[in-house]
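Subject: Predicted fold for F5/8 type C domain-containing protein, 657 residues

User T.R. writes:
Posting the sequence so we have a shared reference for the thread.
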Amino acid sequence: MRRLQSLISMLAASALVSCGAPEGDERALQPAQQRARIDELINVTLNKPATASSTQDPFRPEYAVDGDINTDTSRWCPGIYNQTRLLDIDLQGTFDLARMELYTGFRDTRVIQSYELFYDDGTGWKPIPGASQTANTSIAVSTTFTQPVTANKVRFSCRDPLADNCRVKELWVFGTPHSTQVNIPPVADAGADRSLTLPTSSVTLVGGATDADGTVTSLAWTQVSGPSATLSGTTTASLSVAGLSAGVFVFRLTATDDDGATASDEVSVTVTAPPAVLTDVAFKKPATAGSFNTSLPPANAVDGDLATRWESGFHFQTHNYLDVDLQGAYEVSSAELHLGTSATATNAMPAFELQAWNGGCWKTIPGTVVDGNPLSTTQKTLTFTTPVITTQVRVVCKDKPHCRLRELKLMGIPAATPTGPTTCAAGQQTLVRNVRYDYALFLPEQYNNDRTTRWPLIIGMHGIAGSTLTVDRTAVLSNPEGLARQFSSASFRAAMKAIVISPNQRLPFDNAGTGWFAAPSLLALIEDAKKDYRVDSDRVYVTGLSGGGNISIELGMNHTSQLAAIVPISITSTPTNNANICNLKPLPIWAFHGALDTPSRATSVKTWLDTKCGPGESKMRVTIIPNAGHNEATWDTAYATLELYDWLLQQRISDRL
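User M.O. replies:
I've generated the structure tokens; pasting them so everyone works from the same file.
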């Protein structure tokens, strides 16, 4: 490649005097250095095999390449009136051709005026640029090709009138043996990848290049990707980069050699933000609690003042809680808790844990479960096993009757809001501890699919003799009473499209309690559920059997605006004696009662609502189950009726307000 390019330069000047020039030494017109280079060319047609499309004896084709320009008989003639007059010369090798000398005619007359010269490089015949003439008047023509060619054969084509005999004394083509050497591209090296940390915002990259068979003629730096930056020295080996920001930058160094070949190499610069400083992300953020002493509200636990505190109300159950809304997503890595009424008090919480909101439920933070904390240990620092990214943190107090927290510090840094599916226990019943009532929880199978869908809530209560959880609070009973029993069926679990909470009335570990649910505690449980799960507040329902059914009627009468519908089963109370009974008239109610369970108080309630609570029929419907009494035959049949849930989940509070 290099020699061919050199050949072009070397012959440029000779082209000025070549076409149609008279016989003579035009090299004398050229500088001595250029003449020396032209002298390097060899006659590649001399004595090479020659053939012709036609021949007039004795003027054979080989005479046109025998080197004899003085003997008149040493020439090729095709004869007159031959349509095709071609002279082919096999170069017996591959050559880079640069110029030609053509000697024609008889002595000093009868020159060939019109001709063409072709070459074959193995892919077919092609015209040699600048080698043809149409009005030649000279018996000796020296022509430098306007573009060198690489060939292994040469063809002369006479284009004179057919009546003229084409006389070629000699056809000399000059060139050099073709080299198969391929230029080796340069090798670029942009240097090693770099890393830096802000506030450092500039860097110098040092690169270079080598060329094994020549020289590197230029270098050029460009930015390939990354945020914008300011570059200087882009055509030198050293590139100065300024104005860097956090991100990954890629720069490319391109080298060009003296044959025009290029090569590139890339280098990356990784710029990281300075390490984030951990701060107390709970400080003065909104705080709520399961309950609190009026003078000791939850906000005291995040006000930065160790002289104030949150203290829960009096409770017989454990698992009260304090929630902190971080008002954004944070990566939280540790917590510091100041417990008790003072630093020297002996009433610190003995057992507690921290939980993080994951978008659908609360999950225990690894490394934060504390059991057996001494009553005198009023400060506790917890380093999480793994930092958590969350928007809310909960302190769960496993103490009773009071929980006391003077300050909660959560050390973290800002983070991106979590996206994607959640990881709550869905599609099955699980046990949940709660300060109101421990309960069996069911979340629909599709609950985890997204973080935005809100689901209906059903509170299902057992009767005064029933329960849903084991006494030691380790599991849901294998055969719980009421709605919770239906979840032993896989098809029922798949069909249920609501959050279902089945509270257990009795206290843990001793099974104490009469089985009567309290309306205030149930209402608080509903509010807890709205904090703990993605509940659709427009679709909240209560149902219960026997004593639980009585409570559902009570809630419907006294808290109608908070419920979308109720499903009382086998009620034993007499609601018609309650002054608020007419509040039930606009409330969607589907009551069930066994035919053998007398009297049918549900029927009496509907009659009362239809006839004594103003004009029009009530929204109450009653189903009497044949051959069923005050037992499972009634409530299990009712809760197994899938039509019930199709109707129930269509009811909304907003439809009647």
